Amino acid sequence: MSASKPHTTLFLIQSLDGKITTGNNNERNIDKDLRVIPGVKEGLAQYYELEKKLDRVYLNSGRVFEKVGFNDKVWEKDRSDNLSFVVVDSEPHLTIRGCEYLAQRCDQFFLITKNPNHPAISLTKKFTNIIPIVYDRRIDFTDAFKKLRSDYGIQRMTVQTGGTLNAKFLRLGLIDEISIVIAPCLIGGENTPSLIGGKSLHSLEDLKDLKALKLIKSETWESSYIHLQYEVIN
Length: 234
Fold this sequence. Notes:
Layout: E1 7-15, H1 30-33, H2 45-51, E2 57-61, H3 62-67, E3 84-88, H4 96-105, E4 109-113, E5 130-134, H5 141-150, E6 156-159, H6 163-171, E7 177-183, E8 212-220, E9 226-233
Parallel strand pairs: 1-6, 1-7, 2-3, 2-6, 3-4, 4-5
Antiparallel strand pairs: 7-9, 8-9
């Protein structure tokens, strides 16, 4: 683990063929859809039980939070204990309501963005736990990860983003471990997002971006689920 950034674990559920969602539009959501598939729904709770035991700082994207409905939610409970979110969002995908929901739900809400007019920034006076990390034109993720460690003391972080950001983080050497739950199903679809997306490798020189893994743990769960944990050899 580098002392200059948090120790990061990429944690997601996927199908056997590597799909992290069940389709190529916002209507399809693997967490929601697997709950209704016979032969798959029976073991899904094991994934959520493991998720509760992970690092309590979660990095995700505004696009994913939009897809799972955060912009329509209202937090009506006490703040979650020791739970913080790091959100990558520039478009923005999160609305004022979605940002308020996150700020009320967690201890700290870190926003990584290149959009100086992001709705979360307008809420910083109302919610002191919103911490914007703003870049001009292009987000420097290596710098952002360093800031999370050096300026805010984040030592460990769980990454749960989509295939494009997963690829970017992996190729920048920002992912230390992979923790994957494999659901007993095949989804398919050439445009259905996979665990690692981004640009394809083309040349011999591009092979430097291929990441080797060292197996740490392999577990067979009930209902034909498998949990695999790897160290990324950076």
